[in-house]
Amino acid sequence: MKVGKEGILGLTCAIEHYLTATKESGAEMVAKMTPFIDALNTLNGVTARVVWDSAGRDIARTEIKFDEATTGVGTGDLVNKLKQGEYAIYLPWLQGQRRDYRGGRAQREC
């Protein structure tokens, strides 16, 4: 496969942009996430907290846990409802879950 000049120029621009872009620190990420996490923690059956990147990078994420007994909604159903909302939300991964949610069920990995 031949790489064209447009592809090379596009890659060059992307690298230049990446190298000159202002990087956001983990502390800045946490400051942005805190109001969201606080709001989630007011909901029955929902707990949220900051978790840090497992590779040791300065990247903060929000971990959200749902208590099915309290919410009455299963993991698979919740994932599907998030996808079908006014603003579709797709989850990049679920810890301990496989990504197949057909039939409204998430399969737990051993």
H/E order of the elements?
A: HHEEHH
Q: Percent of residues in helical segments?
A: 40-55%
Shape: extended
Strand order of the largest sheet: 1-2
The number of distinct β-strands equals: 2
Structural class: alpha+beta
Low-confidence stretches: 101-110
What's the number of helices? Answer: 4
Count of folded domains: 2
- The percentage of residues in β strands lies in 5-15%
Measured distance between first and last alpha carbons:
41 Å
Mean pLDDT over the full residue set:
84
Describe this structure in words.
By secondary structure, this protein is α+β, with helices and mostly antiparallel strands. The chain has two domains: 24-66, no CATH class; 73-110, no CATH class. It is built from four helices and two strands, in the order H-H-E-E-H-H. It has helices spanning 5-20, 26-40, 68-71, 75-83, and strands at 46-52, 60-66. The chain has a two-stranded antiparallel sheet. Strand 1 and strand 2 (60-66) form a beta hairpin. 3% of the residues are buried. The model is unreliable at 101-110 (pLDDT under 50).
